[in-house]
Amino acid sequence: MEHDTNQSSPVILVTGARGQIGTELVAALRNVYGRKQVIATDLHDAASISESNRPYHQLNVLDKNELENLVITYGVTQIYHLAATLSAKGEEAPLKAWHLNMQSLLNILEVAKDHKLDKVFWPSSIAVFGPSTARKISPQDALLDPQTVYGISKEAGEQWCAYYREHYGLDVRSIRYPGLISYSAPAGGGTTDYAVAIFHEALQNGSYNCYLNPDTALPMMYMDDAVRATLELMDAPAEVLKERGAYNIGALSFTPAELAIELQKHLPGFTISNDADKRQAIANSWPAGVDDNAATRDWNWTPKYDLAAMTTDMLLHLAPVYKNTNTATVS
Question: What separation in angstroms does the CA of 171 have from each of 33, 148, 233?
Fold first, then answer.
């Protein structure tokens, strides 16, 4: 079996490794711990995965036996459980989304408990918030009243993680991710996905029709910051982590109109239109920003990317992809 048996370095299994977060998190973990220490898993056929992206195993996270086999075979000491159905996609098939999101988490927690894993990371989301949350800035201890099946599953997941921590001593750590912006992988069906799609459309077509109203402010974060936050949380000593549930982390808060203005500084001919659809109601139930003082207090969280820096870096990486189809020159 191709893995390092030196237990001074963790052996990490990542579910949902081919998704928006997983793509970059796996690369970051391998950069820190070595490629052979990080086992990537997803639904994709292993035959399509290059040697440089291995170890990789095709895994349905609902298959507890196969999950357990991988943990035993590789001597896994940590799991990062990223597989999930996201907010907008989840509303198309609510019961299916609930089953995937909840049963997969319970499988992870049970296997981690039974095999005495060192740590588990599980992402929560701003989708746990709802109409009762302060619209401008959500506090860490906000009342959670999610309006989507994704958000309901994340609220329940926070409670299950706390339960396993308190009753079984399992070290489970979690972040309430805001909308995530990345150039490396397509977004996965979330309400905040416009903030990724807008870059591709701007470069390819010079225009974008947004499914949210122009003044809809939402919490966002550049993927580099999200990955760094995840690694920093997982590296923090257990005794400094005071939150029972998931940590709020903040970085950016902007509207589609504000992002369009920033894009126009680089692509002067870019235009945006707005045609709100059912995702607008989901966005309306979320806060415009979050209070992340607890994360700052407990593990020194601070973001690095503001709106201008994020926009510049996204265009730097994406512009070459569209160099033959650009309708405008990036300045």
Answer: 20, 28, 12
Distance CA 233, CA 294 (A): 12
d(CA 122, CA 226): 13
Q: Which residues are catalytic?
A: 150
Residue 145 tokens, joined: 């009243």
Q: Both tokens of residue 100?
A: 């995937």
More confident residue, 46 or 118: 118
Look at strands 175-177 and 247-248 and give their pairing.
parallel
Measure the N-to-C terminal CA separation of the chain; round to a whole number of Å: 50
Q: Quick one: which of 214, 177, 201, 166 has its CA closest to 86?
A: 177
Cα→Cα distances 243→30, 140, 161, 233, 294, Å? 28, 9, 12, 12, 8
Choose from 5-9, 20-24, 88-92, 298-302 the range with maximum mean pLDDT: 298-302
Fill in the amino acid letter for 95. Answer: L
* Beta-strand pair 252-254/218-222: antiparallel
Q: Which residue has the higher pLDDT, 97 or 185?
A: 97
Q: What is the mean pLDDT of residues 139-149?
A: 93
Rounded-to-10 torsion of CA 212, 312, 310, 39: 110
Helix/strand number for the chain, H first, E second: 11, 14
Residue closest to 63 by CA, chosen among 83, 47, 92? 83
Q: Is 75 left (phi over 0), alpha (psi -120 to 50) or beta?
A: left
Structure tokens at 288: 């415009």
Q: Please tell me whether the peptide bond between 55 and the residue prior to it is cis, using omega within 30 degrees of 0.
A: yes
Q: Rounded to whole angstroms, what are the CA distances from 169 to 3, 118, 165, 264, 295?
A: 27, 10, 5, 51, 21
Q: Give the pair of three-digit tokens for residue 20.
A: 């928006």
CB–CB of 138/164 below 8 Å?
no
Find out whether 14 and 182 touch, Cβ atoms under 8 Å: no
Rounded CA-CA distance 78/55 in Å is: 15
Q: Which amino acid is at 96?
A: K
The model's confidence at residue 187, banded by pLDDT at 50, 70 and 90, is low
